[in-house]
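STRUCTURE:
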């Protein structure tokens, strides 16, 4: 553990930021799962709204520095491919 007061504060701030980032990533994963469930159904309006929400969350994560831009692009691409496979059946 750090001895200097400012270093101790940075440790606390880094932990708070880490927890916020984990929560944000978890919300992205949850939104992806919900979108895939909707893709298995027939409600196209809810599916498009949910897909838009996932894209928005991924883009916001990139702006905030939580995800790398290529990681977000990969997530969006894989989700689009999965939805395409599910809706073709």
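SEQUENCE:
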């Amino acid at each position: 553990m750090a001895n200097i007061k400012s270093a101790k504060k940075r440790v606390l701030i880094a932990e708070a930021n880490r927890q916020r980032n984990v929560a944000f990533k978890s919300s992205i994963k949850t939104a992806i799962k919900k979108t895939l469930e909707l893709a298995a159904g027939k409600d196209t309006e809810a599916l498009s709204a949910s897909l838009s929400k996932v894209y928005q969350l991924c883009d916001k994560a990139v702006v905030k520095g939580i995800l790398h831009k290529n990681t977000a692009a990969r997530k969006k691409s894989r989700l689009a491919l999965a939805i395409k496979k599910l809706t073709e059946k």
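REMARK: The longest helix spans residues 5-40.
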